[in-house]
Design a protein that fits this description.
Layout lengths: L4 E14 L3 H9 L6 E14 L3 E5 L6 H8 L7 E6 L3 E5 L10 H11 L4 H15 L14 H14 L4 E5 L7 H16 L3 E5 L3 H7 L2 E6 L2 E7 H17 L2 H11 L12 E2 L4 E12 L6 E3 L8 E3 L8 E9 L2 E7 L8 E6 L3 E10 L3 E5 L5 E2 L9 E3 L9 E10 L2 E8 L2 E6 L3 E2 L1
Parallel strand pairs: 3-7, 3-8, 5-6, 6-7
Antiparallel strand pairs: 1-2, 1-4, 8-9, 10-11, 11-14, 11-17, 12-13, 14-15, 15-16, 17-21, 18-21, 18-24, 19-20, 21-22, 22-23
Helix pairs in contact: 3-4, 4-5
């Protein structure tokens, strides 16, 4: 039976485990205990694309657009669900599939070999790819020396010249010069006239209106709406307008509401109605902020089992549970992003200063350090959490980011710096 659909995605869920370093990752592999914190980038995503469909993926940062694109392209495996494709898919994204230590020419050969071309076919394709990329003499330089725009041009040139059945463009036109973006858009229009199936990921509403026929709106990893451009895009534009006007607190409440029916790790909620004791999952960062003598308890309703909190001051901890006992709010403090491992104990919330710990996205990014500021072992770190008090020796160092979080009003980037896993504030990095 010939498959008439170009893409059939059923119940796609993608779960990541977030670790606080390589040690925790290794322990999770070799020990029976569960380490790390579960994060659902996608939850039960369903959609179908007909041959020749031009579909735009929209959603705010962290909605799962790039994760879904990578799953469809076969770069990232889904945790559960299935994706069926009618033909070969090619992903165009900034530096997608490029090896930094190889030259541009070597990357052309490597990527084409991975796509099933032989050396003779690659030799025939190479001149057209190089010409389209407009890289000139830089084609024989290592890709690690390229700007983000140059990487995007090379990736785009390779992908469009191998003539795929399904083309996935992930923000590839958001970098580089305007002339090349126009040239790339014209090439995509050419593919559109040939009846190829395309997925277009972009923050440009104008490009979506000009180019797409259908819109898949993702919100915090779930499908919000899927349908014709004229039906879905006006609703998304109205949402964006409201989102931009929301305060930080309003955005947190909106996000919490969106996750009401999400699968949550460690969801064993305990309720002791007799003692008016309830316990719920929480995700915050906090530090003890009291000059008085305060205590940490083994359970909120166990005043006999306690210890002085003095030694735990001046550090930032993860808050993984909240509980109400006799109308008092308690937080569960943990040294690790888990409510099972690294647990310190319960403390009255009145003695803790905290911020909601919100994951924005896990999309890889590359920045360069300005040399200012400090680096910490967790976002919103106290002085005792500081790993590098002076970043001036790392001025202009390449900083590869694997996770972005907002804490309070500050955005933090997580990455590796001189073999240390660190968090650096956004204002201390540059593109």
């Amino acid at each position: 039976m010939i498959m008439k659909k170009a893409i059939i995605a059923k119940h796609i869920t993608k779960k990541y485990k977030l670790y606080q370093g390589n040690k925790e990752r290794l322990l999770d592999l070799v020990t029976p205990k569960s380490y790390g914190e579960a994060f659902y980038a996608l939850t039960d995503v369903n959609f179908e694309a007909e041959k020749g469909d031009i579909i735009g993926f929209v959603g705010i940062n962290g909605s799962g657009k790039s994760t879904l694109s990578n799953i469809i392209a076969g770069i990232v495996p889904e945790t559960s669900g299935s994706v069926k494709l009618n033909g070969e898919a090619s992903l165009i994204a900034v530096s997608a599939g490029l090896k930094n230590d190889l030259t541009g020419r070597d990357n052309i050969e490597l990527k084409c070999l991975m796509l099933g071309f032989n050396k003779a076919e690659i030799k025939e394709l190479e001149p057209a790819i190089i010409e389209f990329s407009e890289l000139g003499q830089f084609i024989d330089q290592p890709v690690k020396s390229y700007s983000s725009g140059m990487k995007s041009r090379l990736g785009f040139a390779i992908s469009v010249n191998v003539d795929p059945n399904i083309l996935i463009i992930d923000e590839a036109l958001s970098v580089g010069d305007k002339a090349f973006a126009e040239k790339s858009l014209n090439k995509m229009k050419e593919f559109k006239s040939q009846g190829k199936t395309m997925i277009f990921v972009s923050h440009s509403i104008k490009q979506m209106k000009e180019f797409c026929e259908k819109i898949l709106w993702l919100e915090f990893g779930k499908v919000k709406e899927y349908g014709a451009v004229e039906d879905v895009l006006p609703k998304y534009e109205a949402f964006l307008k409201r989102w931009k006007q929301m305060t930080k607190k309003e955005r947190e409440l909106y996000r919490d509401g969106a996750f009401d029916d999400q699968p949550v790790i460690e969801e064993d909620l305990s309720i002791d109605y007799e003692n008016k004791y309830t316990e719920k999952v929480e995700s915050r960062l906090g530090r003890i902020n009291s000059e008085e003598e305060v205590y940490i308890f083994s359970r909120p309703n166990n005043a006999n089992d306690k210890k002085a909190a003095k030694r735990y001051k001046h550090y930032v901890y993860y808050i993984k549970r909240k509980a109400v006992y006799n109308n008092e709010l308690f937080y569960l403090l943990s040294e690790l992003p888990s409510a099972e491992n690294g647990v310190i104990g319960w403390i009255e919330a009145a003695n803790v200063k905290s911020f909601k710990n919100t994951v924005i996205d896990q999309d890889p990014k590359t920045f360069y350090l300005t040399g200012d500021g400090m680096a910490f072992n967790r976002p919103w770190g106290a002085k005792k959490n500081c790993i590098y008090k002076d970043l001036s020796p790392f001025r202009d160092w390449q900083f590869k980011v694997d996770r972005t979080e907002t804490v309070g009003k500050a955005t933090w980037y997580h990455g590796k710096l001189d073999d240390e896993q660190v968090w650096v504030r956004r204002k201390f990095v540059k593109e």
